[in-house]
Task: structure prediction
Amino acid sequence: MCGRYNVIDDPLVQDLLEILGIPIRAETRLNIAPGAKGQIVYETNQGRTLEGAIWSLLIEPKPDGSGYRPSPKYSTFNARSGSLGTSPLWKKRFHSQRAIIPASGFHEWTGEKGHKQCYNIHPVNNAIAFAGLYELWDFQGDIVPSFTIITLPPHPRFSHIHPKSIPLMLKPEDFDMWLDPHLTNTDPLQHLLKTSIREPLSVEPIKSPANLEKAGEGEKIEAD
Result:
């Protein structure tokens, strides 16, 4: 996953939040990049919450004191599924700090440098529920949430768009289990970490992720 996604407060995203039990609306944001603020859903002692969070798990204060930024030492906006159970960075969080990131679509680029084509990729009839991990950082009393999106190994029918990975997108029947912080035995989650396309995807060429204006005919990638 190259590292851009969008959220549009439309009926599809509203339906997703309703299924998740979130009573508030999502914020429309186009072209969300690592280090920017997205919104995540996670479980608290008071129930589920939708909260703004920085996209990159490891963050630090900006040198000028104006906010927070991703750690310059490590790239943590994506977490590879194969390392969730072994990496010290992911293991603890995979056991008890799992989140869902509501989205409308994500972006990939193909082609040579200087002639790249951007695509907006989204389920044909649904919003996206990215699977992720989160952290609540305490910077001298300032609690700052951050998150990462989990990626799966490449899929043969998606590799012409992105040959290295495909994001893990959950379905409604996965939500309760994924968000349950008391489910620390991750064996029941392992089937989700196998590469698959679980629902049809629309791949649309666009002029820019900043406005999603279409640039030609797209293609449909069927579900497995």
